[in-house]
Amino acid sequence: MRFLLYETGDAKPSAPPSPELMAEMGKLIEETTRAGILLATGGLGDKSTHVRSSAGKVTITDGPFTETKELTGGFALIEVKSKDEALEWAKRFRKIVGDGESVIQEVFGGDGR
Amino acid sequence: MTADTHSAIDAVWRIESPRLIAGLTRIVRDVGLAEDLAQDALVAALEQWPESGVPDNPGAWLMTTAKHRGIDRLRRNERLERKHEELGRELEVQQEMAVADLETATDDDVGDDLLRLMFISCHPVLSPEARVALTLRLLASLTTEEIARAFLVPVSTIAQRIVRAKRTLTEARVPFEVPSGSELDARLGSVLQVIYLVFNEGYSATAGDDWMRAGLCDDALRLGRILAGLAPKEPEVHGLVALMEIQASRTRARVGPSGEIVLLLDQDRARWDPLLIHRGLAALERAEKLGGALGPYALQAAIAACHARARTAAETDWTRIVALYDALAQLVPSPVVELNRAVAHGMAFGPAAGLELVDALGSEPSRAATSSQSSAARMRRARSSSARHHSRRTRANVTSCWSVRRRAHVEHTRPDRHPERRSTIR
């Protein structure tokens, strides 16, 4: 089963992560890679743009969007045996990054399941 | 106990148990005992975590608990054996050492331990079936029931297979080490073979509705990716990973609306998984960068990559595929490889070139037919003689390939499903 893990939060640009956090994150990425579960990961820029379509018309709006929670920080696409396993990795991630919120969603289609 | 905690423990177990068992095997030098101790720790977790919550570092908790259980067991045995006065001094020393090891053991070299565990789980002293069962159990954290379900055999069969495998390893005094020198190639070959066997078992099931069996593909991919992290300097490891990633990228496209197999050249390439293709090509590049001639897995991956890179079937680089099959046939000759090679030659240089090779294949006395019939008939005979040796899937591909379309390419050189025959491939 594939899951997308990402963080949500305020769209306000936050302070750059500390070297300690970066090191911890590096370790987690290394661990998940070595565990054979990490398919893709990346950090996200703090500027987002919304592309909306309505009645055949596409409108583009630059962020930040204070009214909605934005996808922030980064994402990881993992392949695991169960949702519980995805949750366990998400817990480990949260322990490193401190306060905040992550979202886990199953990803369909990639491997046909 | 709440269902939530229970499933959280399951998840932790799946993540932690291979490292736990590997670390314990290094300390107690017996994989059977190591697994027992790990299971003891799991039982303790199931008793305590619902009350106390899952600890911050569950892996370390399980290791500490398992070590304590180990010390208890060894001391108990010691007392028992003293009582019987049958204890040789050697054994006593061994036990003291083991207790000391358990007390002082550090968790360093976890990676090396995992690699050692892979090597002993796939040790040639075990039957191929036993290697598969033990590897799935110890390294992929599958339960006996899950393995039985995936291989469509009774649970008791798998349970016995695993018990016997562990006993065999103990009796044969198989050392817990990474083989070196000339032994390394053969032993690594065995590990790769086990992983690819698991993958193929799952791949042959992806056309059906049996997700449990199809899940073996994911297990194999995971094992392959883990191995690539543990043995990053081995080109064939990356070759196998590349082969599996690229093959897995086609899972969705190889089954038609009514469940029928769709041949490679007929597949809707938009349904291929670009992420897995990308990962496969990257793994192949790692194999190639390590230098030297490509091995059988890397060659098969390179062939798969030719297809993966072609945006349409017509854009396939058949000349390159021919060169790769020629190399593969030199390295690991087999009827399937020869047949695929003939198809590739036909695709690259016209039917006559392919037929020539098929004729040569058909004239081998062991599997050939009498001559003096049409080439087409001979092709069909070559096809059916080959089919006797190979899986139904390959047979379906070949049938379609030669007698129906004459242009389709047998998807890959998948060895057949029987491990003892598979060994001819590697």
Task: Looking at this protein, list some descriptive labels.
heterodimer; A: 113 residues; alpha+beta; Alpha-Beta Plaits; 4-stranded antiparallel β-sheet; two-stranded antiparallel sheet; 2 helices; B: 19 helices
Question: What report would you give on this structure?
Answer:
The complex is a heterodimer of chains A (113) and B (426). Chain A has two helices and six strands. Chain A has 113 residues and is α+β, with helices and mostly antiparallel strands. In chain A, the strands form two sheets. In chain A, strands 2-5-1-6 form a four-stranded antiparallel β-sheet, with helices on one face. A two-stranded antiparallel sheet of chain A has the order 3-4. In chain A, strand 3 and strand 4 (57-62) form a beta hairpin. Chain B has 426 residues and is mainly α. Among the domains of chain B are: 1-108, no CATH class; 331-426, no CATH class. Chain B is built from 19 helices and no strands. In chain B, helix 1 (3-28) packs across helix 3, helix 14 runs antiparallel to helix 15 and helix 17 packs antiparallel against helix 18 (392-405). Chain B is elongated and about 80 Å long. The interface between A and B is medium-sized, with 22 and 31 residues.
Work out the oligomeric state of the chains in this entry: heterodimer
Cα distance, first to last residue of chain A?
8 Å
In the CATH hierarchy, the third-tier topology of chain A is known as: Alpha-Beta Plaits
Content-based structural category of chain A: alpha+beta
Helix content of chain B: over 70%
Instruction: Report the mean per-residue pLDDT of chain A as an integer.
Output: 86
Q: In CATH's first tier, which class of chain A applies?
A: Alpha Beta
The end-to-end span of chain B amounts to 49 Å
The tally of beta strands of chain A, per DSSP, is 6
Strand content of chain B: under 5%
Cα-atom Rg of chain A, whole angstroms?
16 Å
- Helix residue percentage of chain A: 25-40%
Strand order of the largest sheet of chain A: 2-5-1-6
Along the chain, the helix and strand elements of chain B come as HHHHHHHHHHHHHHHHHHH
Largest sheet of chain A, if any?
A: 4 strands, antiparallel
Rg from alpha-carbon coordinates of chain B: 25 Å
What's the number of helices of chain A?
2
The biggest beta sheet of chain B reads:
none
* CATH hierarchy: architecture of chain A: 2-Layer Sandwich
